[in-house]
Protein backbone atom coordinates (compact mmCIF):
# COMPACT_ATOMS: atom_id res chain seq x y z
CA UNK A 1 0.00 0.00 0.00
CA UNK A 2 1.43 3.36 -0.93
CA UNK A 3 0.08 6.80 -0.39
CA UNK A 4 2.32 9.41 -1.79
CA UNK A 5 1.12 12.67 -0.42
CA UNK A 6 -1.57 13.98 1.88
CA UNK A 7 -4.65 15.48 0.29
CA UNK A 8 -5.23 17.92 3.16
CA UNK A 9 -2.01 19.80 3.76
CA UNK A 10 -1.25 21.76 6.94
CA UNK A 11 -4.62 20.76 8.41
CA UNK A 12 -6.44 22.62 5.65
CA UNK A 13 -9.39 20.66 4.37
CA UNK A 14 -10.14 20.85 0.71
CA UNK A 15 -13.65 20.35 -0.63
CA UNK A 16 -12.37 19.99 -4.18
CA UNK A 17 -13.53 17.03 -6.16
CA UNK A 18 -11.06 14.15 -5.98
CA UNK A 19 -11.09 11.88 -9.04
CA UNK A 20 -10.64 8.18 -8.24
CA UNK A 21 -10.34 4.87 -10.03
CA UNK A 22 -12.02 1.99 -8.18
CA UNK A 23 -11.63 -1.69 -9.03
CA UNK A 24 -13.27 -3.94 -6.45
CA UNK A 25 -11.67 -7.23 -7.42
CA UNK A 26 -12.41 -10.74 -6.25
CA UNK A 27 -8.99 -10.83 -4.63
CA UNK A 28 -7.83 -7.27 -4.16
CA UNK A 29 -9.67 -3.97 -4.10
CA UNK A 30 -7.81 -1.11 -5.67
CA UNK A 31 -8.43 2.59 -5.13
CA UNK A 32 -6.33 5.02 -7.11
CA UNK A 33 -6.31 8.78 -6.62
CA UNK A 34 -3.91 11.42 -7.95
CA UNK A 35 -2.16 11.20 -4.57
CA UNK A 36 -1.56 7.47 -4.43
CA UNK A 37 -3.06 4.02 -4.28
CA UNK A 38 -4.66 1.65 -1.81
CA UNK A 39 -4.60 -2.10 -2.37
CA UNK A 40 -6.46 -4.25 0.17
CA UNK A 41 -7.51 -7.89 0.21
CA UNK A 42 -11.20 -8.11 -0.71
CA UNK A 43 -12.31 -9.45 2.67
CA UNK A 44 -15.14 -8.18 4.85
CA UNK A 45 -16.99 -9.05 8.00
CA UNK A 46 -20.31 -7.49 9.05
CA UNK A 47 -20.55 -7.08 12.81
CA UNK A 48 -23.83 -7.92 14.49
CA UNK A 49 -25.66 -5.49 16.81
CA UNK A 50 -25.11 -7.85 19.71
CA UNK A 51 -21.32 -7.85 19.17
CA UNK A 52 -20.07 -5.46 21.85
CA UNK A 53 -16.36 -6.20 21.41
CA UNK A 54 -14.01 -3.32 20.77
CA UNK A 55 -12.42 -3.58 17.35
CA UNK A 56 -9.73 -1.46 15.80
CA UNK A 57 -8.23 -1.24 12.32
CA UNK A 58 -5.47 -3.87 12.19
CA UNK A 59 -3.10 -4.77 9.36
CA UNK A 60 -4.01 -3.63 5.87
CA UNK A 61 -7.67 -2.99 6.64
CA UNK A 62 -10.20 -0.89 8.54
CA UNK A 63 -13.12 -0.68 10.95
CA UNK A 64 -16.05 1.27 9.45
CA UNK A 65 -19.36 2.32 11.00
CA UNK A 66 -22.13 3.78 8.83
CA UNK A 67 -23.84 6.57 10.78
CA UNK A 68 -26.20 8.05 8.21
CA UNK A 69 -26.59 8.64 4.51
CA UNK A 70 -28.28 7.56 1.31
CA UNK A 71 -27.72 3.86 2.01
CA UNK A 72 -30.45 3.67 4.63
CA UNK A 73 -30.07 -0.12 4.76
CA UNK A 74 -26.58 0.36 6.24
CA UNK A 75 -27.44 2.96 8.91
CA UNK A 76 -25.99 1.93 12.31
CA UNK A 77 -24.16 -1.04 10.83
CA UNK A 78 -20.46 -1.76 11.36
CA UNK A 79 -18.01 -3.86 9.43
CA UNK A 80 -14.37 -4.83 9.13
CA UNK A 81 -12.53 -4.66 5.82
CA UNK A 82 -9.36 -6.21 4.40
CA UNK A 83 -6.85 -7.87 6.70
CA UNK A 84 -8.72 -6.55 9.75
CA UNK A 85 -11.63 -8.90 8.91
CA UNK A 86 -9.23 -11.81 8.44
CA UNK A 87 -7.28 -11.10 11.64
CA UNK A 88 -10.37 -10.96 13.91
CA UNK A 89 -12.52 -13.59 12.16
CA UNK A 90 -10.08 -16.15 10.71
CA UNK A 91 -12.76 -18.80 10.21
CA UNK A 92 -15.77 -16.71 9.22
CA UNK A 93 -14.73 -13.60 7.30
CA UNK A 94 -16.42 -13.02 3.94
CA UNK A 95 -14.64 -12.73 0.61
CA UNK A 96 -15.76 -10.93 -2.53
CA UNK A 97 -14.76 -14.03 -4.50
CA UNK A 98 -17.41 -16.16 -2.70
CA UNK A 99 -20.31 -14.80 -4.78
CA UNK A 100 -20.23 -12.89 -8.05
CA UNK A 101 -22.82 -10.38 -6.74
CA UNK A 102 -20.58 -9.49 -3.78
CA UNK A 103 -18.88 -6.80 -5.92
CA UNK A 104 -22.21 -4.97 -5.77
CA UNK A 105 -23.63 -6.15 -2.42
CA UNK A 106 -20.43 -5.26 -0.54
CA UNK A 107 -19.13 -2.68 -3.04
CA UNK A 108 -19.77 0.37 -0.83
CA UNK A 109 -18.47 -1.39 2.29
CA UNK A 110 -15.22 -2.17 0.45
CA UNK A 111 -14.94 1.34 -1.02
CA UNK A 112 -15.46 3.02 2.36
CA UNK A 113 -12.93 0.62 3.88
CA UNK A 114 -10.39 1.69 1.25
CA UNK A 115 -11.14 5.39 1.87
CA UNK A 116 -10.48 4.77 5.57
CA UNK A 117 -6.86 4.07 4.58
CA UNK A 118 -6.19 7.29 2.65
CA UNK A 119 -4.92 10.30 4.60
CA UNK A 120 -7.80 11.38 6.81
CA UNK A 121 -10.01 14.36 5.91
CA UNK A 122 -13.35 15.43 7.39
CA UNK A 123 -14.99 15.62 3.98
CA UNK A 124 -14.38 13.85 0.71
CA UNK A 125 -16.05 14.77 -2.54
CA UNK A 126 -15.22 11.91 -4.89
CA UNK A 127 -15.70 11.36 -8.59
CA UNK A 128 -15.33 7.60 -8.80
CA UNK A 129 -14.92 5.67 -12.04
CA UNK A 130 -15.44 1.99 -11.28
CA UNK A 131 -15.24 -1.02 -13.57
CA UNK A 132 -17.36 -4.14 -13.64
CA UNK A 133 -17.18 -7.39 -15.60
CA UNK A 134 -20.61 -6.79 -17.16
CA UNK A 135 -21.21 -3.10 -16.95
CA UNK A 136 -23.98 -3.27 -19.55
CA UNK A 137 -26.10 -5.43 -17.25
CA UNK A 138 -25.06 -4.28 -13.78
CA UNK A 139 -23.74 -0.72 -13.93
CA UNK A 140 -26.97 0.78 -12.58
CA UNK A 141 -26.92 -1.64 -9.61
CA UNK A 142 -23.33 -0.70 -8.79
CA UNK A 143 -24.03 3.01 -9.19
CA UNK A 144 -27.00 2.73 -6.86
CA UNK A 145 -24.84 0.91 -4.32
CA UNK A 146 -21.99 3.44 -4.28
CA UNK A 147 -23.46 6.80 -5.09
CA UNK A 148 -24.62 9.49 -2.67
CA UNK A 149 -23.81 10.93 0.75
CA UNK A 150 -22.33 8.70 3.41
CA UNK A 151 -21.44 9.76 6.94
CA UNK A 152 -19.17 7.18 8.51
CA UNK A 153 -16.99 6.67 11.55
CA UNK A 154 -13.52 5.28 10.86
CA UNK A 155 -11.59 3.33 13.45
CA UNK A 156 -14.20 4.06 16.16
CA UNK A 157 -13.26 7.73 16.39
CA UNK A 158 -13.13 9.87 13.22
CA UNK A 159 -16.46 11.02 11.76
CA UNK A 160 -16.14 11.66 8.04
CA UNK A 161 -18.56 12.85 5.35
CA UNK A 162 -18.14 11.30 1.93
CA UNK A 163 -19.96 12.23 -1.23
CA UNK A 164 -19.61 9.75 -4.08
CA UNK A 165 -20.48 10.56 -7.67
CA UNK A 166 -20.02 7.32 -9.58
CA UNK A 167 -19.61 6.22 -13.17
CA UNK A 168 -19.19 2.60 -14.22
CA UNK A 169 -17.29 1.25 -17.21
CA UNK A 170 -16.40 -2.17 -18.60
CA UNK A 171 -13.60 -4.09 -16.92
CA UNK A 172 -10.48 -3.67 -19.06
CA UNK A 173 -11.15 -0.19 -20.42
CA UNK A 174 -8.74 1.23 -17.84
CA UNK A 175 -5.99 -1.20 -18.81
CA UNK A 176 -6.48 -0.34 -22.48
CA UNK A 177 -6.20 3.38 -21.86
CA UNK A 178 -2.77 2.90 -20.34
CA UNK A 179 -1.41 0.15 -22.57
CA UNK A 180 -2.60 0.77 -26.11
CA UNK A 181 0.35 1.45 -28.40
CA UNK A 182 -0.03 4.19 -31.03
CA UNK A 183 -1.96 2.95 -34.05
CA UNK A 184 -3.48 -0.06 -32.30
CA UNK A 185 -7.22 -0.18 -32.78
CA UNK A 186 -8.53 -3.69 -32.20
CA UNK A 187 -7.14 -5.28 -29.07
CA UNK A 188 -7.90 -8.47 -27.16
CA UNK A 189 -7.42 -8.53 -23.40
CA UNK A 190 -7.10 -11.61 -21.23
CA UNK A 191 -7.52 -10.63 -17.58
CA UNK A 192 -6.23 -13.30 -15.20
CA UNK A 193 -7.90 -12.16 -11.99
CA UNK A 194 -8.35 -13.73 -8.60
CA UNK A 195 -11.78 -15.25 -9.22
CA UNK A 196 -12.26 -14.89 -12.96
CA UNK A 197 -10.56 -15.00 -16.33
CA UNK A 198 -12.13 -12.43 -18.60
CA UNK A 199 -11.45 -12.44 -22.32
CA UNK A 200 -12.60 -9.44 -24.33
CA UNK A 201 -12.02 -7.69 -27.63
CA UNK A 202 -12.16 -3.91 -27.81
CA UNK A 203 -12.46 -1.78 -30.94
CA UNK A 204 -11.13 1.54 -29.70
CA UNK A 205 -12.60 1.67 -26.19
CA UNK A 206 -15.77 -0.14 -27.17
CA UNK A 207 -16.28 -3.74 -26.14
CA UNK A 208 -17.19 -5.76 -29.23
CA UNK A 209 -20.53 -7.47 -28.93
CA UNK A 210 -20.29 -11.17 -28.07
CA UNK A 211 -16.53 -10.96 -27.72
CA UNK A 212 -16.51 -11.31 -23.94
CA UNK A 213 -16.04 -14.66 -22.25
CA UNK A 214 -16.01 -14.89 -18.47
CA UNK A 215 -14.68 -18.06 -16.87
CA UNK A 216 -14.94 -18.38 -13.12
CA UNK A 217 -11.37 -19.58 -12.83
CA UNK A 218 -8.70 -17.35 -11.32
CA UNK A 219 -5.64 -17.30 -9.08
CA UNK A 220 -7.93 -18.24 -6.20
CA UNK A 221 -8.33 -21.71 -7.73
CA UNK A 222 -4.57 -22.10 -8.17
CA UNK A 223 -4.10 -21.21 -4.49
CA UNK A 224 -6.75 -23.75 -3.49
CA UNK A 225 -5.09 -26.41 -5.65
CA UNK A 226 -1.68 -25.74 -4.08
CA UNK A 227 -3.22 -25.66 -0.59
CA UNK A 228 -4.83 -29.08 -1.12
CA UNK A 229 -2.01 -30.70 -3.11
CA UNK A 230 -0.95 -34.10 -1.78
CA UNK A 231 2.63 -32.95 -1.15
CA UNK A 232 1.34 -29.91 0.76
CA UNK A 233 -0.86 -32.07 2.99
CA UNK A 234 1.99 -34.50 3.58
CA UNK A 235 4.34 -31.71 4.53
CA UNK A 236 1.99 -29.71 6.77
CA UNK A 237 -0.13 -32.67 7.95
CA UNK A 238 -3.14 -30.63 6.79
CA UNK A 239 -4.17 -28.48 3.82
CA UNK A 240 -2.39 -25.13 3.67
CA UNK A 241 -4.05 -21.79 4.34
CA UNK A 242 -4.92 -20.37 0.86
CA UNK A 243 -4.38 -16.81 2.15
CA UNK A 244 -0.74 -17.64 3.00
CA UNK A 245 -0.30 -19.42 -0.35
CA UNK A 246 -1.56 -16.33 -2.13
CA UNK A 247 0.87 -14.15 -0.21
CA UNK A 248 3.69 -16.63 -0.84
CA UNK A 249 3.16 -16.46 -4.62
CA UNK A 250 4.51 -12.91 -4.52
CA UNK A 251 7.26 -13.73 -1.98
CA UNK A 252 9.44 -16.45 -3.52
CA UNK A 253 6.94 -19.15 -2.52
CA UNK A 254 7.59 -18.80 1.21
CA UNK A 255 4.70 -19.99 3.37
CA UNK A 256 3.81 -17.63 6.22
CA UNK A 257 6.63 -17.44 8.75
CA UNK A 258 7.61 -21.09 8.29
CA UNK A 259 10.76 -22.29 6.50
CA UNK A 260 8.65 -24.24 3.97
CA UNK A 261 8.55 -23.07 0.37
CA UNK A 262 6.24 -24.47 -2.27
CA UNK A 263 7.89 -23.68 -5.63
CA UNK A 264 7.83 -27.31 -6.82
CA UNK A 265 4.16 -27.69 -5.99
CA UNK A 266 3.51 -24.43 -7.82
CA UNK A 267 5.23 -25.77 -10.94
CA UNK A 268 3.19 -28.99 -10.72
CA UNK A 269 -0.11 -27.14 -10.41
CA UNK A 270 0.60 -24.29 -12.84
CA UNK A 271 0.20 -26.33 -16.01
CA UNK A 272 -3.26 -27.65 -15.12
CA UNK A 273 -4.36 -24.23 -13.94
CA UNK A 274 -3.25 -22.52 -17.16
CA UNK A 275 -5.08 -25.23 -19.11
CA UNK A 276 -8.25 -24.22 -17.26
CA UNK A 277 -7.99 -20.45 -17.80
CA UNK A 278 -5.38 -19.21 -20.29
CA UNK A 279 -5.86 -21.97 -22.87
CA UNK A 280 -9.68 -21.53 -23.16
CA UNK A 281 -9.16 -17.76 -23.40
CA UNK A 282 -6.63 -18.17 -26.18
CA UNK A 283 -8.89 -20.65 -28.02
CA UNK A 284 -11.82 -18.25 -27.72
CA UNK A 285 -9.78 -15.62 -29.55
CA UNK A 286 -8.59 -17.88 -32.37
CA UNK A 287 -11.63 -17.43 -34.62
CA UNK A 288 -11.19 -13.64 -34.37
CA UNK A 289 -7.41 -13.44 -34.31
CA UNK A 290 -6.79 -12.43 -37.91
CA UNK A 291 -7.48 -8.72 -37.56
CA UNK A 292 -6.33 -8.17 -33.99
CA UNK A 293 -3.59 -5.58 -33.47
CA UNK A 294 -2.49 -7.13 -30.17
CA UNK A 295 -3.39 -9.63 -27.49
CA UNK A 296 -2.54 -8.45 -23.98
CA UNK A 297 -2.46 -10.30 -20.69
CA UNK A 298 -3.48 -8.27 -17.60
CA UNK A 299 -4.57 -8.92 -14.01
CA UNK A 300 -2.47 -10.04 -11.07
CA UNK A 301 -2.33 -13.58 -12.49
CA UNK A 302 -0.13 -12.27 -15.30
CA UNK A 303 2.50 -11.39 -12.66
CA UNK A 304 2.72 -14.98 -11.37
CA UNK A 305 6.15 -16.57 -11.90
CA UNK A 306 6.65 -17.95 -15.46
CA UNK A 307 3.20 -16.98 -16.71
CA UNK A 308 4.34 -14.09 -18.93
CA UNK A 309 6.97 -16.23 -20.66
CA UNK A 310 4.49 -19.06 -21.28
CA UNK A 311 1.94 -16.58 -22.68
CA UNK A 312 4.60 -14.98 -24.89
CA UNK A 313 5.06 -18.30 -26.72
CA UNK A 314 1.49 -17.86 -28.00
CA UNK A 315 2.08 -14.24 -29.02
CA UNK A 316 0.37 -12.82 -25.91
CA UNK A 317 2.15 -9.78 -24.47
CA UNK A 318 1.97 -9.09 -20.74
CA UNK A 319 1.20 -5.55 -19.66
CA UNK A 320 3.48 -4.00 -17.05
CA UNK A 321 2.01 -3.49 -13.57
CA UNK A 322 -0.62 -5.96 -14.66
CA UNK A 323 -2.53 -6.01 -11.38
CA UNK A 324 -3.10 -2.26 -11.08
CA UNK A 325 -3.01 -1.07 -14.68
CA UNK A 326 -6.81 -1.20 -14.98
CA UNK A 327 -7.38 1.03 -11.96
CA UNK A 328 -4.64 3.39 -13.12
CA UNK A 329 -6.60 3.83 -16.34
CA UNK A 330 -9.86 4.31 -14.43
CA UNK A 331 -8.24 7.20 -12.59
CA UNK A 332 -7.19 8.66 -15.93
CA UNK A 333 -10.82 8.43 -17.05
CA UNK A 334 -12.05 10.09 -13.84
CA UNK A 335 -9.60 12.95 -14.35
CA UNK A 336 -10.80 13.42 -17.93
CA UNK A 337 -14.47 13.41 -16.79
CA UNK A 338 -13.66 16.05 -14.19
CA UNK A 339 -12.42 18.52 -16.81
N1 LIG B 1 3.44 -9.79 -8.31
C1 LIG B 1 2.63 -10.82 -8.08
N2 LIG B 1 3.12 -12.04 -7.90
C2 LIG B 1 2.31 -13.09 -7.68
N3 LIG B 1 0.95 -13.00 -7.61
C3 LIG B 1 0.41 -11.81 -7.78
C4 LIG B 1 1.20 -10.65 -8.01
N4 LIG B 1 0.37 -9.60 -8.15
C5 LIG B 1 -0.87 -10.10 -7.98
N5 LIG B 1 -0.85 -11.42 -7.76
C6 LIG B 1 -2.01 -12.30 -7.55
O1 LIG B 1 -2.85 -12.19 -8.66
C7 LIG B 1 -4.17 -12.46 -8.26
C8 LIG B 1 -5.13 -11.68 -9.06
O2 LIG B 1 -5.03 -10.33 -8.72
P1 LIG B 1 -6.05 -9.27 -9.27
O3 LIG B 1 -5.91 -8.08 -8.40
O4 LIG B 1 -5.88 -9.09 -10.73
O5 LIG B 1 -7.44 -10.00 -9.01
P2 LIG B 1 -8.84 -9.31 -8.85
O6 LIG B 1 -8.95 -8.15 -9.76
O7 LIG B 1 -9.02 -9.03 -7.40
O8 LIG B 1 -9.80 -10.48 -9.27
P3 LIG B 1 -10.99 -10.48 -10.36
O9 LIG B 1 -10.46 -9.79 -11.58
O10 LIG B 1 -11.31 -11.91 -10.56
O11 LIG B 1 -12.10 -9.71 -9.73
C9 LIG B 1 -4.25 -12.21 -6.76
O12 LIG B 1 -4.63 -13.40 -6.13
C10 LIG B 1 -2.85 -11.85 -6.36
O13 LIG B 1 -2.50 -12.56 -5.20
MG1 LIG C 1 -9.70 -7.84 -11.69
Strand content is 25-35%
| Biggest sheet statistics | 11 strands, mixed
Bound small molecules, by name, code or SMILES, are:
adenosine-5'-triphosphate, magnesium ion
- Structural class designation: alpha+beta
User: Please, what is the average pLDDT?
Assistant: 93
Task: Give the count of helical stretches.
Answer: 11
Strand order, largest beta sheet: 1-4-3-2-9-11-10-6-7-5-8
CATH architecture name of the largest domain: 2-Layer Sandwich
Give the helices and strands, then pairings:
Elements: E1 2-3, E2 17-24, E3 28-33, E4 36-41, E5 43-47, E6 61-69, E7 78-82, H1 83-88, E8 94-95, H2 102-105, H3 107-115, E9 123-132, H4 135-146, E10 148-154, E11 158-170, H5 173-179, E12 186-192, E13 197-203, E14 206-207, E15 213-215, H6 219-228, H7 230-236, H8 242-249, H9 263-286, E16 294-298, H10 307-312, E17 317-318, H11 325-338
Parallel strand pairs: 2-9, 9-11, 12-16, 16-17
Antiparallel strand pairs: 1-4, 2-3, 3-4, 5-7, 5-8, 6-7, 6-10, 10-11, 12-13, 13-14, 13-15
Bound molecules: adenosine-5'-triphosphate and magnesium ion.
What does this structure look like?
32% of the residues lie in helices and 29% in strands. The chain is α+β, with helices and mostly antiparallel strands and 339 residues long. The radius of gyration is 20 Å and the shape is globular. A hairpin with a 3-residue loop joins strand 10 (148-154) and strand 11. An 11-stranded mixed β-sheet has the order 1-4-3-2-9-11-10-6-7-5-8. Strands 12, 13, 14, 15, 16 and 17 form a 6-stranded mixed β-sheet that branches. It has helices at 83-88, 102-105, 107-115, 135-146, 173-179, 219-228, 230-236, 242-249, 263-286, 307-312, 325-338; strands at residues 2-3, 17-24, 28-33, 36-41, 43-47, 61-69, 78-82, 94-95, 123-132, 148-154, 158-170, 186-192, 197-203, 206-207, 213-215, 294-298, 317-318. The structure holds adenosine-5'-triphosphate and magnesium ion. Magnesium ion is lined by residues 25, 191, 193, 299.
Amino acid sequence: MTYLQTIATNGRITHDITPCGWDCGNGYSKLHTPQGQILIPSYFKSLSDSDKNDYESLGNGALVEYLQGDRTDLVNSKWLIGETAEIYFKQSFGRIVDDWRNKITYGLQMLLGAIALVPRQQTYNLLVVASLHDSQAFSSDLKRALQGNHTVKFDGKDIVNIYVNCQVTEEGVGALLISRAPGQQKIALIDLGHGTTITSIFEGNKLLQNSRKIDTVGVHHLCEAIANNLQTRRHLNKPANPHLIREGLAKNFSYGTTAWEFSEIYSDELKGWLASCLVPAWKHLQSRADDLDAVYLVGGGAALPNVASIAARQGIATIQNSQIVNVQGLLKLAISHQK
